[in-house]
Design goal:
This protein is an alpha+beta fold and 286 residues long. It contains 10 helices and 4 strands. 66% of the residues lie in helices and 11% in strands. A 4-stranded antiparallel sheet has the order 2-3-1-4.
Length: 286
Amino acid sequence: MQLTKEQKKKVTEFIAMTLGVVFLTVGVYFFKIPNGFSTGGVSGIGTLLGKVTPISPATWIAGINFLLLIVGFLVLGNATGAKTVYCSTLFSALTWLFEAVMPLTLPLSDQPFLELIYAIFLTAIGSALMFNCAASSGGTDIVALILKKFTHLDVGKALLCTDFIIAASSFVVFGVETGLFSMMGLFAKAFVVDGVIENLNSCKYFVVITTKRDEVSEYITKSLKHGATVHAAEGEYTHEGKYMVHTVCRRAEAVRLRMRIKEIDPHSFIIITTSSEIIGRGFRNV
C-alpha cells in the first residue's frame, strides 16, 4: 500500500518528534541532571527541585508537564496539544526508564564544560526537531510556543525569556560555578535551537541563465513538481538573447536540479543562494 503525500508527512513528523524526544532525554538525564545544569525548561525546574526535595527529578518533570499540558490544549489548540502530549509523555517515560535502568549519582566525567556542550547540543537539537513539527516536550516549551504565537519573538528568544529565572536559580541551589555554566548553557541553547530550525527549513533559490528554457522548465515542473518563473534576458557583453529561469527547491532537490541543468545546457550560468525559509504552496504554510 502506497502512502499519500499527507500520510508520508505525518510519518516523517512522527519520526522527527520521536528522535527529538530521544535527543532531549539523553541530554537532560545524562548531562544536565548529574551536573546540576539548569538551563531552563521543566527539566531545569526538576533538576533544582530534585536537589532540594526527596522527590526525584523525573517525578517533578512529569507533574509539572501535566499541568502545563492543560494550558497547551487551551491556548495552542488540539493539533499542537496532541503532539505535545505524545512528546511530553515519551519524555517523562524515558526519563523514568533511564532512572530505573541506569541510575546516576555522579556526572559521567570530571569535565563539566565538555558535559555542558553535550547538554546544550543534544537538548537544542531535540527541541528544534519538535518545534519544527509544531510540537514540544511540554513545560516551558509550551510557554515559548504561546509567546511565539502572540508576539514577534522567534522560538529561541521566547525560550530565553521563559527560562532565564530558572537558570538564575541554579546559583542559589548549586553554587556560583554551576550557576555560571547554567547561564552560559541557557544563552547558547537559544541560538542553537534557532540555528537548527533554520537549517531544517533552508531551501535553495536558483537563477538559471540558459538558452534552453523549455527543457529546464519542464524538468522543474514535471520532475521536481515546483513552479518556475521565466523572462527574457540579453547578455550585455555578447548581446545574445537568453532566458532567466527562477525557481526554489529543497536542499536534497538542489543537487539533482544542478546536475540536470548542466546535462541539458552545459553552457548555462547558474546562481544558487540559500533561503532560510520558503512559505507557499509545496513548502511551508504561514
